[in-house]
Amino acid sequence: MIRLIVGLGNPGSKHEADRHNAGFWFVDRLAAQCKQSLQAEKRFNGRIAKIQIKGHDIYLLEPDTFMNLSGEAVGPLCRFHKIGANEVLVVHDELDLKPGTARLKQGGGNGGHNGLKDIQQHLSSPQFWRLRFGIGHPRDLPGNLAKMDVADYVLKKPSSEEQDKLDAAITKAIGILPLLLEGNTQDAIQILHGPN
Questions:
Q1: Which domain holds residue 106?
Q2: Are 74 and 62 in contact, with CB atoms under 8 Å apart?
Q3: For FRET with 5, which of 40, 54, 145, 151 sits at 20 to 30 Å CA-CA?
């Protein structure tokens, strides 16, 4: 059972539109849909809301730490509310998936994603769930843009076409949450990974 959904991103208005903030976009949309707003909680190094989906209480968290230190927000909140790693869903951007693609899985490596690496260290387990939103890779861009540094790419705004695809993927992922919360993970994954 998922009890905590963590959106990964970088805090501050400067980063709001960055590709790297796809996790924040998901959590913001989910909170708005549940008519809740995230409030700053210093003891948890982040912004938090509590929502209900199908009778299940779920915490939403957006760390105020920068991406690479996300575990400094996730760890304290999990310890305080006695939330196990397998009850956490971490939502983040994924370079190796094309925009408009979303993938869900439990456990696995961190794929060089420093936010995931930090969360894994703070939870002493890789067994949390991951919801990954494709943002594409600069190597797929035309001409000289393909040489763009990955660090620069993730901190830039997606094109309007990419944004539309990301928004559609977020909508689809929110739609499968009730199935996931009911423990119907296979159907949730099948729908999410299937054609639109």
A1: 4-191
A2: no
A3: 151
Which listed residue (15, 20, 92, 113) is catalytic? 20
CB-based contact 120:110 (threshold 8 Å): yes
CA distances from 193 to 122, 124, 167 (A): 29, 29, 16
Decide if 20 is catalytic: yes
Q: Between these two residues, 23 and 145, which has the higher pLDDT value?
A: 23
User: How many domains are contained in the chain?
Assistant: 1
Q: How far apart are CA 92 and CA 19, in angstroms?
A: 10
d(CA 28, CA 33): 9
Any domain includes 177: yes
In a domain, 196, yes or no: no
pLDDT value at position 174?
97
Nearest to 63 by CA among 123, 111, 23, 109: 23
For the question of whether the overall pTM of this predicted structure is more than 0.70, the answer is yes
Tell me whether residue 124 is in a domain. yes
Report residue 139's pLDDT band, with 50, 70 and 90 as the boundaries.
Answer: confident
Q: What is the CATH number of the domain that holds 19?
A: 3.40.50.1470
How does strand 4-7 pair with strand 56-63? parallel
Whole-number average pLDDT of the chain: 94
Residue 133 confidence (pLDDT) above 90: yes
